[in-house]
Give the backbone structure.
Amino acid sequence: MSIKTIDAKTLARMFLAGARNLEAKKEWINELNVFPVPDGDTGTNMTMTIMSAASEVSSLEEFDMETLAKAISSGSLRGARGNSGVILSQLLRGFTKSVKKAECLDALALAAAMERAVETAYKAVMKPKEGTILTVAKEAALKAAEIAPEAEELQPFFEEVFAHAEATLARTPEMLPVLKEAGVVDSGGQGLLEVLRGAMDGFLGKEIDYSVFEKSSAPSVTKISPQAEADIKFGYCTEFIILLDKAVSEEEEHKFKEFLTSIGDSIVLVADDEIIKVHVHTNHPGQAIERALTYGALSRMKIDNMREEHQERLIKDAEKLAREQEEAQPPKENGFIAVSAGSGLTEIFRELGVDYLIEGGQTMNPSTEDMLNAIAKVNAETIYIFPNNKNIILAANQARDLTKDKKIIVVPTKTVPQGITAMISFVPEKSAEENAQEMEEAVSKVQTGQITYAVRDTRLDDKEIHEGDIMGIGDKGILAVGKDKEQVAQDTIEAMMTENAEVISIYYGEDASEEKAEELAAAVEELYPDCEVELNRGGQPIYYYIISVE
């Protein structure tokens, strides 16, 4: 098979095959997580990220390298979830930036694109850690750069790069002791390897099931009620992405937004140097589309008739939003967004003054686009975001970087108690910079323990763990293991206690009884009489208890 270059069509086939292979292996990749907790983590996040891009690519009817590159970059960027998903989106973004002006790619061009991908991904991570997906990507790029000058045919080039990436993944347990102790390779690196494996299959022309990318059939027509017809001011929810012919200035972006305001409401407009994402409720979607075409080609076009009966709930939300906009006040100085899982935790954040709650957490990390939608709905000049999970911080940072019209401050909270402490620490009279600094200082003093169950046998932090065991997971590892939820919670608190501890907060989840939670709080009060013990209903899934010590 003597092939020296690939064109856009072949690259698209390779990309879709890589996405399909990752999707097929996602559950297996999830099981590689170091901590044996019941979460949808690396495999799910990487799959949802690449599937967002694959959906855009599969909707392209005719394309060249530049159009393909934009579809992959914008789709993965908006769909990025979790740290692994964000890193994957940055690898794809760097790769596509390198190839978008080419007509075809040889080994040298592919090696340069891989190098650009790694450079982009490393820049996105504040403290890159070796032994992860980043290392696998970097080593693959280094091998590509080494052999590209002598590579005449692509098949042996791809095979040697893949073999080196596979060998690097096998060495990740030697780079990260926690992987070695758990007996697994890095799950993000494995996910990247599956993308590369699928891409190889696509290059070789192997039969791939692409049905997963096919568009769903058209929805059936639904009768419109006279009341809905009468009540809705703007009837068509119109969404699309503009693939820009050239970068749009802030002035031109403002003019476009003013035009959309003149024909509708509920406007969301997010732009970067290559794409503009538009959402508008209007009675004239054609006018919005015609204006958009003056800036570039359109992708992911979607027009919904909001008057249909089966969308009654969405209609009521739109009516409420329209009324709010009619009565809108000027933007307030500060707004707050938090990620929360559990009705009790959500209520606590609302009582503290958080404007918008994003549902999510360990089992479902919100995407960059979820963050952007939340930002659009908070009418404030400065918005603080509390991710409340270490696997959501990068997506929040990515949304911050894509937002042009508001100041976004991501407070890197890794747990719900840290988010609550950060919110309590806010002082309206202080500047955004002062508040951000003091929030981070306050958060650094919060220790968090989370009580859950093991989904497989493993050994971590010198502790034997068996499937079904109850674990107390602290900020830096396993603190306690046992058979009884409340006893493990007590052991976890004991491991977190310091001489200066003043407050112990306990949030019980949906699978913990209120009676048992009250017994736990009473026992903790007896053990630590000098501390104030607070008990709250969290309602969170997966974690029987979330506990903080301050």
